[in-house]
Each structure stands twice: as C-alpha cells, then as structure tokens.
Task: inverse folding
C-alpha cells in the first residue's frame, strides 16, 4: 500500500471523529460520535494507528475545549481494547463486534465520571453527587454512542480490501513480509532468550518515559503549590492591610487600658468582626503587642469555637512564633508562617503598625485556612496523572512499534536466517543465502549496514567453501608433504596457534633472561578434559572442534600470542612483562567462561569446554630454568584435574 493510501485512510478515521463530534454539537444529539474513527483504525491497523488517531482527536478538540485533552487516556484505552478483540477475530462477525458495546460503555462511562470529578469537582461529596446524578444517564448515552460507532466501524472494515488490511498489519516494517513459519520460529527463538533486546529496550523506554513524566509532574506540582501559596500570601496581606487601616497608632495604649469600655475600641472591634466574617477562610484575627513579658492582647476576635482573650492580657509566644521573638519585639516584619496543629492547617501573617515617628505600636495578624490549598493540590495531581497516562501510553506504544519494526524484528530474522544456513550441502547453502537476501531489510541505519555485511559475508563464505572443495583434492595429494612441513613449522595445523617447536624457542629465550637476571614471567598449563569421550561419542571431527573451541577460549582470555599447543590436549600459556600481575585474574576469567559454556543448554557437547588449569610464577630465588616453572604449573594442573574428577557425577 502506498503512503498516500495509508495517510488517506488514517485521515478518514481522524475526520470521522472530528466530524461526528461537530455534528453532535451542532444538532445537540444525545451521543458523542467521537470514537468511531478510533475504533475503525484500531480494528484495521492495530495498536499504534488506533492510539495515534484517538490521541490526535482529543488533541485537536482540546484547541476548542481544553478539558478534552484529559480524555485522551480514554481514547487510548478504547484503541487498546478494540485492537485486542479485533485480533481475536471479533470484527469478522457483527454479533461478536457488538459484544464490545457493553465493555466500551462501562470503560468509557466509568473513566468519564472519574475524569470529570478530578477536573471539575473538589470533594468526595461532590463526586458522590455527580456519580448518582450522571452515571446512569451517561451509561445510556455511552451505550447508544458505542453501538452506533462499532456498527459504523464494522461496516467500514468489511469494505476495506484484503490487500489494504494486510498492508495495515505490516505497517512500519522495514523488511519483506515473513512467512508464517519463519515468523513463528523467530518468535519461538526470541522467547528462549533470558533477557531479549526488546525487553531491555522497552524497559529503558518505560523508565525514561516514567522518569520524564514523573519529573514534569513533580516540578509542575511544586510550581503550582508555590504559585497557590503566593496567591494566599497576597490575599492575607490584603486582609491584614485592611485591619491596619482601621487602627490608630496613637490610640493603641488607650485600647489596652480601657478595652471594651471605650467606644472607639468597640467601634474598631465591630469593624474587625466585619473583616473576619468577609471570608470563611479567615479563621482567626487578632492584634498583639509583643514584649519580653509575652504577647499583649489588644484585639482578639471571637470565633464560633473560641472566645478571644481580653485586652491587656499577656499570653505566651506560640512555638511557631518563638524564633521570631526578637524581631517582633523591636518591630521588624517577619515572613508568613504556615502551621498544621490543633487549630488546623493555617497560614499566619503578622504585619506591624508604626506611629508617625516610626515606632512599632502593635502587630495585626490573620490566620488563614490552607485547607483549600490541599484540595487544589490533590485535584491538580489527579489531573496531571490523567493527562500523563494517555501521553505515556501513546509514547510507549509509539516506541514499542518503532523498536519492533526497526530493531528487534530485523535483528531476530537475520539471526534466525544466519543460524540456519546449511554450509554442508551446496544446494541448501544456496537456498539459505537466497533466503537472507529475500529479507530486504531497509532501515537506513546501522542495522541495514549489518544486513549488508551479513549478505556479503554469506557470499564470501559460499565462495570460499566452493574454492575449498576444489582445493580439497589438491590437499589430499600433498598431505604427506604438508604434514612434514607442519611438523617443522611453528604453527599448529589444527588450531592455528604456535606449536611445541615454537614453545621450545620461547623457553630458550626465557632461560636467557633468567641468566641475564631480568626474567619476569609465569606459565599456565591447560589440559583439556573429555577429549576421548567426545571422539568416541561424536567422532574425531567433533573432537577436533572440541579442541579448537578449547583453544579459542584459551586464546580469547590469555591472548593468542601467549598460547602454545604442546600436545594433543595440552596447551601452555607463557606470559611475561607487565601482564604477569594479571595472570591469576586471567585464570579466574577462563574458569568463569568454562562454567558459563558448560551451563548453557543451547550448546552442543563439543561446544562446551572442560579443562584443568595450573599456574606457576618464576621465582628467582629457587628457579634455575623456565622448565622448573613449567613443572610446577604442570603439577598444579594435575592437582586441579584430580579435584575436578572428584567432583564429577557422570
């Protein structure tokens, strides 16, 4: 399917949602009709296209109604549920498709009530009231809406030609379609992995998306709370300023002296009652003069639960105020104080009143309730979670789709085809290489480079094997001569490493270093176990493979330049210079690699390695020659072999 057709069908799904929503608003219909396109595309193309259409629908609608963005998580859930049942064959039969109606009705109806609660209400009682009033009515509307949407989506799915349906299922794949047989084998082999690349990448994707979402949510909450607290401070500051406007600095002493016996005092107190009662969030209002003796009451407005202290009374400093005692006594402003104690969750703002010579006569204070801040914060967090839920799923599914089509599937199919190349039979080998070429992987990145390298390598191996077959006859005729030359050469014919002759030369050089007094070396003796058993049970070719695999492991750990084959199943490692200090580490690494191979159930017996190891270091105090070091290594190897035999259970 061309990109144009694909974009047209997806655009049609998005247009169905937007047009349906527009018609509902124009004609004031008792349905929504904004999910039929999502259901259609999800049933046709799967998770990624369905979720994308649902997400984009709410994104576009949010330009005109911001609350619609919160419903993107509902659209995402609709796409996921529809895709799941569509892949079970529910959209092949209208009766099965209609089974989705009650499922989607309950899902969308319940989620819609919760979203409306978190976005538009602020208390549990409001939620209960909203639930009782709207839930049943919403379910009826949703049932009608989902019935119409699913029937419309079902009709459109049936009209789409089979090739286009198949193209939608292959959406995003960067290689030729796989046969059902190969696809099943690829997934089967992937399931055998203890930690697949797909799992690791999805874990990283999930953690990254979660970390970003969590960080944004935390920062948003902190900013929201900070802004809300600042708004409260401004509100309280305004109330306290009004209180100060009602006080005469020159009359403060008279207020304390005469109290309610003074008409001026009663007039001011009446105004303070009016200020307190102007807002239900003003819990306490009072005017104090702070001295070393304590807080001297000037005005203390009664509340429904507490009677204010009389003018002139001294009370102790509150614990939250005590640290500002010195500032309050000399009349300095102090910052707002937020407390959560027996009086409730309050913000207290003290503001000084100065006379005409700049002397502080008293402080006006208001205790402002912060309960609404908690409610607003909880509601804000819930709204963020709802918003991020839809965005998180959208990003995750998009990442999953990309990882599967651009990384995991190409790598798995290449691995499967490479593993199943038959090199023994020329005809089968040719078919295997053609199968690799038929993958046609086009990711445009390093994976495509790897695919090209695999094809090139397969061709080179095929040509090499053909040449090897031709050369085999010639090799047979020259076998005796080659054997004699190999005996004289320094390279072992089977393993390709240096042989006993080369080892003798190295030993001679070490003896010279010992004589010169600058020798520093160690010798590791490696004796391969079970060679006879492999030869007897699987043949000498497997025995040779067993030795070659053992040699490769020794070389990979110690370095090829240090390894010699001095006997049928005996290898010697000679390390000198700076690497001597690492030799024990190399031995441990070699033993760990052997253990890893021996516990790998996927390996054949000749691919597993068992060997006894002995290591000896040159000691200038007691070693007169390199051969003495070798003998110690050989003896320690033999002890290790005996220990390994004692542990064997086979």
Result:
């Amino acid at each position: 399917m061309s990109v144009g057709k694909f974009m047209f069908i997806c655009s049609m799904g998005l247009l169905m949602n937007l047009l349906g929503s527009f018609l509902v608003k124009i004609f004031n219909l008792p349905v929504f009709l904004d999910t039929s396109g999502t259901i259609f595309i999800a049933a046709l193309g799967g998770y990624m296209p369905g979720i994308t259409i649902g997400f984009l629908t709410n994104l576009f609608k949010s330009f005109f109604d911001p609350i619609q963005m919160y419903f993107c998580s509902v659209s995402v859930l609709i796409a996921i549920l529809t895709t799941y049942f569509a892949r079970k064959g529910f959209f092949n039969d209208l009766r099965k498709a209609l089974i989705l109606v009650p499922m989607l009705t309950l899902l969308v109806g319940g989620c819609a009530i919760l979203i409306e609660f978190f976005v538009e209400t602020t208390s549990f009682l409001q939620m209960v009231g909203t639930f009782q009033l709207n839930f049943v009515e919403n379910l009826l509307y949703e049932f009608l809406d989902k019935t119409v949407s699913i029937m419309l989506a079902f009709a459109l799915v049936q009209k789409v030609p089979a090739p286009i349906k198949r193209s939608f299922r292959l959406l995003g794949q960067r290689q030729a379609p796989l046969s059902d047989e190969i696809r099943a084998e690829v997934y089967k082999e992937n399931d055998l992995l203890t930690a697949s690349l797909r799992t690791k990448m999805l874990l990283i994707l999930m953690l990254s998306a979660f970390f970003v979402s969590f960080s944004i949510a935390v920062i948003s909450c902190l900013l929201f709370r900070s802004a809300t607290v600042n708004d409260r401070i401004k509100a309280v500051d305004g109330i306290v300023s009004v209180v100060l406007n009602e006080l005469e600095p020159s009359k403060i002493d008279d207020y304390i002296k005469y109290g309610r016996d003074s008409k001026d005092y009663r007039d001011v107190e009446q105004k303070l009652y009016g200020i307190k009662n102007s807002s239900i969030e003003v819990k306490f209002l009072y005017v104090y003069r702070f001295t070393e003796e304590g807080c001297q009451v000037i005005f203390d407005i009664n509340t429904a639960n507490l009677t204010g202290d009389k003018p002139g009374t001294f009370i102790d400093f509150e614990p939250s105020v005590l640290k500002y005692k010195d500032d309050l006594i000399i009349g300095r402003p102090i910052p707002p104080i937020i407390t959560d104690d027996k009086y409730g969750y309050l913000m207290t703002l003290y503001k000084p009143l100065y006379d005409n010579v700049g002397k502080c006569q008293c402080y006006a204070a208001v205790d402002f309730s912060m309960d609404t801040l908690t409610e607003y914060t909880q509601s804000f967090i819930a709204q963020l979670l709802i918003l991020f839920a839809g965005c998180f799923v959208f990003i995750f599914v998009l990442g999953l789709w990309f990882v599967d089509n651009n990384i995991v599937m190409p790598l798995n199919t290449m691995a499967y085809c490479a593993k199943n190349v038959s090199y023994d039979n020329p005809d089968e080998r040719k078919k295997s290489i053609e199968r690799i070429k038929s993958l046609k992987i086009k990711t445009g990145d390093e994976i495509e480079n790897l695919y090209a390298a695999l094809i090139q390598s397969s061709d080179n191996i095929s040509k090499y094997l053909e040449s090897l077959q031709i050369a085999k006859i010639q090799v047979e005729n020259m076998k005796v001569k080659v054997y004699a030359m190999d005996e004289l050469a320094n390279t072992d014919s089977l393993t390709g490493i240096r042989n006993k002759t080369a080892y003798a030369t190295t030993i001679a050089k070490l003896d010279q270093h010992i004589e010169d007094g600058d020798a520093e070396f160690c010798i590791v003796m490696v004796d391969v176990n079970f060679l006879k058993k492999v030869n007897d049970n699987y043949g000498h070719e497997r025995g040779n493979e067993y030795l070659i695999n053992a040699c490769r492991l020794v070389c990979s750990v110690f370095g090829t330049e240090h390894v010699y084959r001095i006997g049928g199943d005996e290898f010697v490692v000679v390390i000198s210079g700076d690497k001597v200090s690492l030799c024990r580490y190399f031995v441990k690494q070699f033993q760990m690699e052997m253990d890893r191979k021996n516990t790998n159930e996927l390996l054949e017996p000749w691919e597993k390695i068992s060997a006894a190891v002995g290591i000896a270091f040159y000691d200038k105090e007691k070693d007169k020659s390199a051969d003495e070091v070798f003998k110690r290594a050989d003896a320690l190897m033999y002890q290790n072999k005996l220990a390994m035999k004692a542990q064997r259970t086979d």
Remarks:
- Residues 484-647 form a domain with the Alpha-Beta Plaits fold (CATH 3.30.70.270).
- Residues 557 and 589 are 7 Å apart (CA to CA).
